[in-house]
Amino acid sequence: MTSAPRSSRAPARRPAARGAPRAKPGWWRQTNELFWEIMPFSAEAIERALTILTILAIVGGLVVTAVVAGIPQAVGTELGQMAGRAGFKVKRVDVKGLDRMDSLTVYAVALDQRSIAMPLVDVEKIRGQLLQYGWIGDARISRRWPDTLVVDIVERKPEAVWQFNKRLMLIDGTGVILEMVDPQAIPDLPLIIGPNANQRVETLFQLLDLAPGVKPHLAGATWVGNRRWDLRFDTGEILALPEGDGFAAKAMQHFARLEAKERLLGRGFIRFDMRDPTKLVVRLQRSPDASRTAQDGSAQAENAGGDAAASGPEPKSTKPAADADQ
């Protein structure tokens, strides 16, 4: 049996299959690759940081929850109580700086505590309560371990007596009321009269500081019409100052210069009117001899540079009446 003859032609070669074209990366992938190219930290480092921040957030939340629940305060209070039981509790109160105020009041305030254990004593509360008393201008409270509270008081200094609504009150240089005054035992201090006069007393003393030669002679002052001052001297005269702090200061300085040169106080005048700050009007007593002396003094004052004029007589008044509130 004969085989079939082979073909002399070689089998046809199939063309090689070409791969499909590669797809272009999307914008998100491109952005992500660009981000990690410019990012100075690795993905692992960022992951660790996020883990730490998560742990801190959880711990912070637990702390806030504990604070809201009062756990730290309770622990601190218990530790303070333990210190008190160990002997660190208030046994003495050392009060310094008191002169006029009753020390028993300070002791009562200092010991009015929910706990006398030294760590639990509220020194700010003690200070706030003490400052409510008029006599106390300032207070410093400290602990002297193991068992002593030190209360250092700065008392206010009485500077005047304020008369209002037929009542007498001791006040300091800023007008703070210190205590009531017995009409039978009025201290030797200037008598300030008028509604709201205590609120203006600091300005009054500032005016007097401009006239150091006149200030020692002040017996009292009246705050007139809630606008200006009438000053009363221990020699019997009244000085009417103008409205306005600036005008009053200039008038006070002018009067101080005249007093230093001519000695106007104690020479028979009864009133110096400077409500018009450009001139000084002088009122005289009725006595002929006193009038002549006053006229001579008025003329000398005018020659000294002050615009002075003598006006008609007015009854002398050296001391305010008990019901002379303006």
Description:
- The chain is of the alpha/beta class.
- The chain has helices spanning 27-38, 43-68, 71-85, 103-110, 123-130, 201-209, 245-262, 288-303; strands at 92-96, 136-144, 148-155, 158-164, 167-172, 177-180, 191-193, 218-224, 228-233, 238-240, 269-273, 280-284, 308-311.
- Among the domains are: 88-155, membrane protein fhac (Ubiquitin-like (UB roll)), CATH 3.10.20.310; 158-311, 3-Layer(aba) Sandwich (Rossmann fold).
- A ten-stranded mixed sheet has the order 6-5-4-7-8-9-10-11-12-13, with helices on one face.
- Helix 7 links the parallel strand 10 (238-240) and strand 11.
- The termini are far apart.
- The model is unreliable at 290-326 (pLDDT under 50).
Summarize the structure.
Among the domains are: 88-155, membrane protein fhac (Ubiquitin-like (UB roll), Roll); 158-311, Cell division protein FtsQ/DivIB (Rossmann fold, 3-Layer(aba) Sandwich), CATH 3.40.50. Helix content is 34%, strand content 22%. The chain has helices spanning 27-38, 43-68, 71-85, 103-110, 123-130, 201-209, 245-262, 288-303, and strands at residues 92-96, 136-144, 148-155, 158-164, 167-172, 177-180, 191-193, 218-224, 228-233, 238-240, 269-273, 280-284, 308-311.
